[in-house]
């Protein structure tokens, strides 16, 4: 097979169906940009989970004198020194515990004033109204229930709270948005495949005389089909390249410059350029293989020679 012939046929086919070729390029670009974006979103959520779950603590809040009057969990009175010692001893024996930090009433009051000093309630609070607590860092944040079942309802313990539950709601929302993007991506891929099939059919129909002559002179089926498959592959590859450009520009504009979220939202650990660059070969490979396979199966059914 002469490469010059195949390349000339590709050029002829792309020019004859310029409008449909442009539609294929745009639909492939948008669908693969959404595909890459959903992969990057998954990476971002996983990175945020690793970053924040590593920082969350389980907090054991101890009863104070005020709680003894208003909270049924503290009906036996404020926590005693003996109860605090027993809680610390039991925590030290637990294999799931990585680190224990004790926060006194004075420290809790100081931290509250630092965070909510402008609140009207802050001026009416006193240190003895604050709760002592143990902040426990777990080796595995998923093992919160081990701590909760061991200390909930114990004398001197007002409550056991897991900060991970707050983050789970946020990550659930982000995962929902990611799945919505994937559904849109799937619909765009279907549209792209339909356009590719129709483009190949129109191209094959417009060149049915040439392909008939080629069959009469003994050309193989693959020799006849190769230009059509290559046309679809070239259009898809252009769309994939555009999609890669979208992702690079989006990463640069949204995180590094323009919106500059990396500096404005310092509490979020954003994905790096390495995450983006590792997705580009997959997008390019998909943009090449998807149209080629669609064209191959379309030709088997619709190319009449």
Descriptive keywords:
single chain; 305 residues; alpha+beta; 69% helix; 8% strand; elongated
SSE order and pairing:
Layout: H1 3-16, H2 18-53, E1 58-62, H3 65-70, H4 81-93, E2 97-103, H5 105-116, E3 133-138, H6 144-151, E4 157-162, H7 164-206, H8 208-216, H9 221-256, H10 261-264, H11 273-302
Antiparallel strand pairs: 1-3, 1-4, 2-3
| Helical content (DSSP H or I, runs of 4+) | 55-70%
Main sheet, how many strands, which sense, barrel?
4 strands, antiparallel
- Secondary-structure element series: HHEHHEHEHEHHHHH
Instruction: State the low-pLDDT regions, or none.
Output: none
Report the principal-axis shape. Answer: elongated
Structural class: alpha+beta
The averaged pLDDT comes out at 79
**Global Rg:** 32 Å
Question: Strand order of the main beta sheet, please?
Answer: 2-3-1-4
**Relative strand content:** 5-15%
Query: What distance lies between the first and last C-alpha atoms, to the nearest angstrom?
Result: 19 Å
Number of β-strand runs? 4
Number of helices: 11
Structural account:
Helix content is 69%, strand content 8%. The chain is built from eleven helices and four strands, in the order ααβααβαβαβααααα. Strands 2-3-1-4 form a four-stranded antiparallel sheet. The longest helix has 43 residues, at 164-206.
């Amino acid at each position: 097979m002469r490469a010059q012939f195949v390349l000339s046929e590709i050029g002829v086919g792309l020019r004859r169906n310029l409008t449909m070729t442009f539609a294929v390029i745009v639909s492939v670009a948008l669908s693969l940009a959404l595909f890459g974006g959903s992969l990057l979103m998954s990476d971002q959520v996983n990175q945020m989970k690793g970053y924040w779950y590593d920082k969350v603590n389980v907090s054991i809040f101890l009863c104070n004198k005020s709680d003894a009057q208003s909270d049924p969990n503290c009906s036996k009175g404020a926590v005693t020194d003996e109860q605090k010692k027993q809680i610390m001893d039991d925590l030290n024996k637990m294999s799931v515990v990585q680190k224990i930090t004790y926060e006194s009433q004075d420290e809790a009051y100081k931290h509250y004033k630092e965070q909510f000093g402008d609140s009207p309630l802050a001026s009416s609070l006193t240190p003895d109204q604050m709760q002592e607590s143990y902040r426990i860092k777990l080796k595995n944040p998923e093992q919160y229930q081990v701590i909760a079942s061991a200390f909930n309802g114990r004398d001197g313990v007002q409550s056991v709270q897991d900060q991970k539950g707050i983050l789970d709601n946020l990550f659930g929302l982000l995962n929902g948005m990611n799945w919505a993007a994937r559904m849109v991506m799937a619909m765009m891929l279907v549209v792209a495949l339909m356009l590719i099939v129709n483009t190949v059919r129109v191209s094959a129909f417009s060149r049915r005389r040439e392909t008939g002559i080629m069959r009469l002179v003994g050309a193989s089926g693959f020799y006849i089909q190769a230009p059509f498959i290559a046309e679809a592959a070239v259009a898809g590859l252009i769309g994939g390249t555009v999609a890669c450009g979208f992702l690079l520009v989006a990463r640069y504009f949204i995180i590094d410059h323009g919106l500059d979220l990396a500096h404005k939202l310092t509490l979020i650990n954003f994905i790096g350029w390495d995450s983006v660059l590792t997705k580009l070969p997959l997008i390019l490979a998909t943009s090449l293989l998807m149209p080629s396979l669609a064209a191959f199966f379309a030709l088997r059914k619709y190319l009449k020679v």
